[in-house]
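STRUCTURE:
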């Protein structure tokens, strides 16, 4: 499979594993999992024929490791980014002292007023690196970087989870923990 095809399949997987499983007749299991065979059958019935080997290629070759198989390789899920109601059942973890979020100017006033909210997703997505956060912000325009005092949040009892692909997730970030570095 060439890179263009891998991206096409990855976008389709993101769509159904994060946002619209029902569109191809799927109901995600607890934790956001779906059987690999069930997924491949549903995709084939909706115009995307994919072998197990090709699916593996997309999963292992994915730039952001967006998808993961379970231990037995029987089920697959998106590691983060869902808008469907899902409990990934990730353990609470202690984040580094500072985390970063990339956004754009037009959201800044609202964010500084009400904090970071998950919007359509299940959690706010935070990065350990300035570079990643800047890239995330740049998806929408000229990126604006925010730093988050994750240590103070932890001390105040806010919980964080680390996704399988290294994204820090939290329910919300109140404005007092945000600053523009
Ligand atoms: C903004 C992609 C107004 C927030 C990326 C962001 C990431 C507010 C947008 C992952 C707000 C939500 C997640 C508030 C937050 N008022 N705007 N109170 N609070 N926002 O896409 O973090 O390629 O849901 O700044 O690379 O941009 O899909 O979140 O601009 O890892 O795997 O509302 O998605 O990864 O947008 O991106 P998103 P995000 P994938």
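SEQUENCE:
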């Amino acid at each position: 499979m060439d890179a263009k095809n891998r991206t096409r399949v990855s976008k389709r997987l993101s769509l159904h594993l994060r946002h619209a499983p029902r569109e191809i007749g799927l109901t995600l299991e607890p934790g956001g999992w779906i059987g690999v065979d069930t997924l491949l059958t549903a995709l084939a019935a909706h115009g995307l024929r994919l072998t197990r080997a090709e699916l593996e290629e997309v999963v292992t070759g994915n730039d952001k490791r967006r998808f993961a198989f379970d231990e037995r390789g029987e089920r697959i899920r998106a590691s983060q980014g869902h808008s469907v109601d899902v409990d990934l059942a990730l353990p609470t973890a202690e984040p580094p002292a500072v985390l970063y979020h990339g956004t754009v100017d037009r959201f800044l006033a609202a964010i500084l007023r009400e904090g970071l909210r998950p919007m359509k997703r299940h959690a706010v997505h935070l990065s350990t690196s300035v570079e990643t956060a800047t890239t995330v912000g740049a998806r929408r325009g000229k990126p604006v970087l925010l730093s988050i005092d994750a240590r103070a949040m932890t001390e105040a009892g806010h919980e964080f989870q680390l996704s399988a692909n290294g994204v820090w997730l939290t329910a919300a970030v109140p404005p007092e923990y945000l600053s523009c570095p």
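REMARK: The first strand starts at residue 34 and ends at 35.
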